[in-house]
TrEMBL record:
Matching SUPFAM superfamilies: Multidrug resistance efflux transporter EmrE
NCBIfam families xrefs: rarD
Keyword Transmembrane attached: yes
Subcellular location(s) per record: Cell membrane
Naturally occurring in which organism (per UniProt): Noviluteimonas gilva
GO CC annotation terms, alphabetical: plasma membrane
Stretches assigned to the EamA domain: 7-122
Coiled-coil features, chain-numbered ranges: none
Entry-linked Pfam families: EamA
Key words of the record: Cell membrane, Membrane, Transmembrane, Transmembrane helix, Transport
UniProt protein name: EamA family transporter RarD
Encoding gene, per UniProt annotation: rarD
PANTHER family: ACYL-MALONYL CONDENSING ENZYME-RELATED, SOLUTE CARRIER FAMILY 35 MEMBER G2-RELATED
Key word Transmembrane present: yes
Length: 286
């Protein structure tokens, strides 16, 4: 994704995120209508409080997408990757605060080490890594709301897109009519096609994730989620040649150590839980 957004850096970031939201809403809505007909929207909103929770989660994910695209094209890919490294640990803290979940000593230790990493980066560079923290916070809050809403992943994404679609289209129309857009005659055919494809690049991985998460153990899903920020970090350093000096390396090292401790502890907990689980006898042949 950083490589894709970088190819589109000639387009203003706001225009990119507006098109990303609009076209992903069209693609997800068309998929749900093809799969379930008109009943998907009623089903998604059938539970109490779902309507406003999905409206809020839609605003959060739109903010997250917009900040990420701006950060990539402003030369902050490395700091953006830091946000998604921090995100799993922030999810843990939100679980403690809002869901009354309990952490073991090792988990608290990993959170403390990551906090030291953020503090180090703040101390050495004189300001909070606000891009990383805003990306992590918005995505963690999005995940919390989606967990509380208890709606199917794709249905929820469709409702979020439906909420955002009309305001986003209105902004796009205003931009085109006031000389601030360029989808039809300013960006060129290739760039306009890329804006449409951005919606597919947003929607299809989320649809795939919704199906995969039901078929792959959560312990593996958790480890796989570190692959994306690692790739983003490598792209930022080795492709875009962003600064990564010793001070930044120390701060990142704290957070990577915290994630390693957290991941290993989670894997050991899952193994112990599986060992304690009763064996289910095989069904007798008939």
């Amino acid at each position: 994704m950083p490589l894709w957004w970088h190819l589109m850096k000639s387009v203003p970031s706001l225009q990119i995120v507006l098109h990303r939201i609009a076209w992903s809403a069209v693609i997800v809505g068309a998929f749900l209508f093809w799969r379930d007909g008109r009943g998907w929207l009623k089903r998604a909103l059938s539970k109490p409080n779902t309507w406003w929770m999905l409206a809020l989660s839609g605003v959060l994910i739109g903010f997250n997408w917009g900040l990420y695209i701006w950060a990539v094209n402003a030369g902050h890919v490395v700091e953006s990757s830091l946000g998604y490294f921090i995100n799993p640990l922030l999810n843990v803290l939100l679980g403690v605060v809002f869901l009354r979940e309990r952490l073991g000593r090792v988990q608290w230790m990993s959170v403390a080490i990551a906090t030291l990493g953020v503090a180090w980066l703040t101390f050495r560079f004189g300001q909070l890594p606000w891009i990383a923290l805003a990306l992590a916070a918005s995505f963690a809050l999005y995940g919390l709301i989606r967990k509380l809403a208890a709606v199917d992943s794709i249905d929820g994404l469709g409702v979020e897109g439906a909420y955002l679609f009309l305001p986003v289209v209105a902004m796009l129309v205003w931009s085109e009519t006031h000389g601030q857009g360029g989808f039809f005659d300013g960006y060129g055919v290739a760039m306009s096609v890329m804006l449409v494809v951005s919606g597919a690049l947003t929607a299809l991985p989320l649809v795939g994730f919704a199906y995969a998460v039901r078929r792959v153990p959560l312990s593996i899903i958790g480890l796989l989620q570190y692959v994306a920020p690692t790739m983003q970090f490598l792209i930022g350093v080795f492709v875009f040649h962003e600064a990564f000096d010793r001070d930044r390396a120390v701060g990142f090292a704290f957070i990577w150590i915290a994630l390693a401790i957290f991941a290993i502890d989670g894997a050991l907990r899952a193994r112990r839980a599986n060992a304690r689980a009763p064996l289910v006898p095989a069904a007798s042949p008939r």
